[in-house]
Amino acid sequence: MNTASRISSYELPSLSAIQAEKTRRRCKSYQEFTKEFWPIIEPSTAYLNNWHQEVITEHLEACAKREIRRLLINIPPRCGKSISVAVMFPPWVWGALGQAYERFIYTSYSGSLSARDSRHSRKIIASDKYQELYGHQYQIRKWLDKDTETFFENDKAGFRMSSSVGGTMTGEGGSFLIWDDPHKADEAQSDAIREGVVEWYRNTYSTRLNDPSKDVEIGVMQRLHDGDMSGYVISEIGGFEHVCIPMQWDRVKRKTFLGSYDPRTKKDELLWPARFPEAEVKLLSKKLGIYGTSGQLQQNPSPEEGGIIKTGHIKLWPSEARLPVFSYVLQSYDGAFTEETKNDPSGLLVFGIFEHKGKNRVMLLDAWEERYEYPELRKVSKEEFKSFYGEETGGQHGVDCVLIEDKGSGISLRQDLGRAGVPVRPYNPGKASKEMRAHLVAPLIEAGLLYVMESPNNKGQVVKWAEWCMKEWRLFPNAKHDEAVDCLTQALIFFHDSRMIVIDIEDDEEGFADDRPRKIRNPYNS
Prior knowledge:
- By secondary structure, this protein is an alpha/beta fold.
- The protein folds into two domains: about 45-295, Rossmann fold; about 310-525, 2-Layer Sandwich (Nucleotidyltransferase, domain 5), CATH 3.30.420.280.
- Helices cover about 35% and strands about 15% of the residues.
- It is built from 16 helices and 18 strands.
- It has helices at about 5-10, 15-25, 30-40, 50-65, 80-85, 90-95, 110-125, 130-135, 190-205, 230-235, 280-295, 375-385, 410-420, 435-445, 465-475, 485-495; strands at about 70-75, 105-110, 150-155, 160-165, 175-180, 215-220, 240-245, 255, 260, 315, 330-335, 345-355, 360-370, 390, 395-400, 400-405, 425, 450-455.
- α13 links the parallel β16 and β17.
- The longest helix has 20 residues, at about 280-295.
- About 40% of the residues are buried.
């Protein structure tokens, strides 16, 4: 057979087959796959490309290749995160990558949202375009009794299952465990509800990976609280590659296993000007308020300068300067050892009164938080009372008073220390909430009356042992714990009510209506 005869015996591929192959090769890129199938789920909305979408798809590609096995994405709402993570991802993995055996388990705070994403994902798979490209690789097993809106399976043993937070997993295990907005925004401030979500994740959802040594967990959400799911996996679990994308650039250079990912260079530069221009972002910020803006838009559970407690007003005592002579030293306790608070640490903050520039000020002298059972806390408290604070040569001062909240578990500690001869004073907050107490002492801090020691090794920063206090003060009321806040507020209220510290017009940069010392209402005298 001559060459011409051999060529004529082969059937040349059709133009449509050539085009399909080109599309298949292009859609090996998850970003290109998303563009290709976007019109199927958003037929009336044009696809707006932006750099953050490429960042998300690149990291999801790395997850599919098992280069990343734990991924956390924090990004503002309405930026396409669910479409990328929950809708397009399974069809792309099953079809474009040829991994139809992968099993996806999704959860969200809302069962209806989980079902919506499941429908959209299945709509892509059922489309003529998808079937033309990948229909020869696998098919959905429609005849199964459990083929529902929230569960569908293919003939290669892969499936996509969705559930709401708190729901049952019916014994299923997945190779991709994905949680998408596990908290409802208006419920995240409830300790009981928020901690319930984390508890469900810890005891139920997190155990559903088929092979923990190689399978993948992905979380995507907007930040809502320091103790939300993101806060939990960052602080308690670790090992997550973290993609954090604020609405306005906060000058933090972030990177993951894949390198730096945020291309912005100017402070407050917008994430997606085509969709969220400056006027829209300002309007969103007004609607959300200071805490919502900080969390949901900026992915920081509390404003940089602090919320109720403006930590930017706290003064640093220079590390090279000698400590002042203290005229009064107070130990302020927040005990947590009852059955109801067994998971919370106890806290101690020590404050000293000193004179500076003709006025009394307050300095944080020591701080710790530890988890103690009551007998150990009582023993530690007795030892702490023996401490001295200040310079060793001529400036040390012992403890004048131990302040303990006169409620719940604090009553036992106060009584036992009193029997041991420790000068204990009860603090009764009455009906004042933690937030109210923070508002009461905020003017004292904003007047520059509170000092924290500067780190000798990191100029311009607080000493290392005080970092946890600064964090809790700044994050409050969105912090996971608030021992430092309770100890601070009861101490400052005590100092002010005892007339050890006052605010006058010279202290306050904003100025008050008159020049009389500013009075702070004592909530436990009401």
